[in-house]
Write a structure and sequence with these properties.
Spore Coat Polysaccharide Biosynthesis Protein SpsA, Chain A; two-stranded antiparallel ribbon; Nucleotide-diphossugar_trans; Glycosyltransferase involved in cell wall bisynthesis; Glyco_trans_2-like
């Protein structure tokens, strides 16, 4: 294969000699999609699986000739991601989120690693967490990481997780040195809405495990989540943002069990209706 070149940080770099597929799942990501497309310009194909966005996500994405835009009804994050993997034509995959930025140093490292007989079959990437445009250095985010680069033939997302998905790799897993930038929300309402969407899926997981919530789940677990983030994981060092993040995560834990209660009540209601009939 002939070498291809592109400019990065005013330097000339060899483009990937090993083809790579950049995957993304989306729903109303018009504010992030262009940055993502710019970040993965090294990929040979960009596959976006969209949950029927109602904003300009599709319009912006399709301006890029590398993009294959596929619509699929959302059921859970794991299924959405594994479906995306099934569409990839290449062995090596990157699977970043739309709210994650890939700095030039990380991009260069990905290219260099995959071009030079990779030692591992999947790679963790550490994340720099931003909230309200502030870099959060503590509050449980010190060691935040996720597998973002992996071989298709040896990796898929674990089927027992609907949210907070985990890549299961049948091979060796390593770490990239450079971090990605994880941009979260600019206000509390949006961030809590995101956490609550995760809590609803987590409640479905717990329902499948037949967990019945108790006083411990309603009161102790949310309190512990707050103390864990704000005290044990040094959230107080992040100032008011550390307090806010700790509080919102505690609320989302409490809501998780309220959502689980709702599932059981709905089941009971349906059973009652059937008996009456």
């Amino acid at each position: 294969m002939k070498n291809q070149f592109y400019i990065l940080n005013t330097k000339l770099y060899v483009k990937m000699s090993t083809k790579i597929s950049a995957l993304l799942i989306t729903y109303n990501e018009e504010k992030n999609i262009q940055r993502y497309l710019n970040n993965v310009d090294f990929a040979d194909e960009i596959i976006i699986v969209d949950s029927y966005s109602t904003d300009k996500t599709e319009q912006i994405a399709l301006q890029n000739p590398k993009v294959k835009f596929v619509k699929r009804k959302f059921d859970d994050f794991t299924n959405q991601r594994n479906y995306s993997i099934s569409l990839a034509n290449n062995e090596w995959i990157t699977f970043f989120d739309a709210d994650e930025g890939i700095p030039d140093e990380l991009k260069e490292e990905i290219i260099s690693t995959i071009n030079n007989n990779p030692q591992f079959d999947a790679y963790f990437v550490y994340r720099k967490f931003f909230f309200k445009n502030k870099h959060i250095q503590y509050t449980g985010m010190q060691n935040d990481k996720a597998i973002r680069v992996f071989r298709k033939s040896k990796s898929q997302y674990r089927l027992d997780r609907m949210v907070h998905e985990i890549v299961e790799c049948k091979g060796e897993v390593g770490f990239l040195k450079h971090k990605l930038d994880h941009y979260t929300f600019d206000n509390e309402q949006e961030y809590l809405a995101k956490l609550n969407s995760y809590s609803k899926l987590r409640a479905q997981e717990l329902h499948l495990k037949k967990l019945v919530p108790s006083f411990f789940h309603y009161n102790i677990k949310p309190a512990y989540r707050f103390l864990s983030y704000y005290i044990f994981r040094l959230g107080f060092l992040d100032g008011k943002e550390g307090y806010t993040i700790s509080k919102l995560h505690a609320i989302s834990v409490a809501n998780r069990y309220r959502y689980l209660d709702d599932i059981y009540r709905e089941e009971k209601s349906k059973t009652s209706i059937k008996i009456e009939v």
